[in-house]
Amino acid sequence: MSEQQKQPFLLKEIRWGVVGAGRIASDFVHAITLCQTPNKIKAIASSDSLERAQKFCENNLLDKNEINCYGSYNELFNDEFIDIVYISNLNHQHKETVLAALNSNKNVLCEKPLAVNKLEVEEMVKKAKEKGLFLMEGYWTRCFPLWIDIMSKHLNSLGNVQMFSTEFGCPIIRVNAMTGIKDGGEGYLLASGCYCLMIAQLIFKSEKPLELKVEGKLKENGLDYWANILIKYSDNKLARIFYSGEHRADGGLNIYCEKGNIRIPEFFWCPEEAIIRRYPDPKTVPHLLAVKATTEKINNNLPEFNLFNYNYPKTAGLFYQIDHVSNCLREGMKESFLMTLNDSLLLAETLDEIRKQLGVKYPQDDF
Fold this sequence. Notes:
Elements: E1 14-19, H1 23-31, E2 39-45, H2 50-59, E3 68-70, H3 73-77, E4 84-87, H4 94-103, E5 107-111, H5 118-131, E6 135-138, H6 145-154, E7 161-169, H7 174-177, H8 188-203, E8 211-218, E9 224-232, E10 238-244, E11 253-257, E12 260-264, E13 273-278, E14 294-299, H9 318-330, H10 341-358
Parallel strand pairs: 1-2, 1-4, 2-3, 4-5, 5-6, 7-10
Antiparallel strand pairs: 7-11, 8-9, 9-10, 11-12, 12-13, 13-14
Helix pairs in contact: 4-5, 5-10, 8-10
């Protein structure tokens, strides 16, 4: 961190406002209770009505005497006792909501995807920099201790990455119920497939792809349903990705390197276990195919939590992201070093190219 980024620790407890009263917001307010640093929910806002915000507090056992409930987002943005807002409304609403928060001088953690295309991300990043405020796209995956350990310790010990593969498949009803492309931001790529692209970008250290080849299936409403993606990088590095709202896949992930490989058996976006295989020096063995690699298992388990408080698998792990963001604020940082604004720009550009090849165009697009 540069000297310019360092500021005195002005904040002890970070005071959060939650924008949106849906399922992921519910998981967020439960996860914050697991934080290792001082964080507290101080306000909830629903765009529908004050009653919905109050009902959200009631359903999630939040004390309405300690939390301000609002029937509009702007009311929350004008609350002077809020340090940062967590934005969790619909994808196509992110741009307008994030810009309104920034214009009200609020720091922002926005649920992924930050926006529906790169044009919108550029506008949001520009505004955050103009206002000197913190902005982060909420890919909680990058804050998981297991991923931090893999990237900082284990991956470099295996030599250069040669290939990466993963799949994310979960048959869901919601894709059938999506309204189509009229609002923008819907489809399975921006719902879950984006996690695969985000991790590929992490593993290849934010290198811009040289080539993408995409094939997939669209629903009758024009939204993407599944896709196979092959990405080529420099030095013949490859990424193979499959995401689907029609097929079931375990969410496993493999990273193949010169000296071994790393496998996450399931739920790569919120992992607790990885298996590292190390190959012996090829000069010391007669035949590589006959070589048995040494195996090491690494674990970083979530703390105990009440499963029935959460709508999605392992979203108790959102507390890792909350702790990370609050520490960034305490240090006066304007962006995350785990998910930078340049990361968000490159990811949005990659997602745009995938949609182009699939034939999914939103009203917000210029292609």
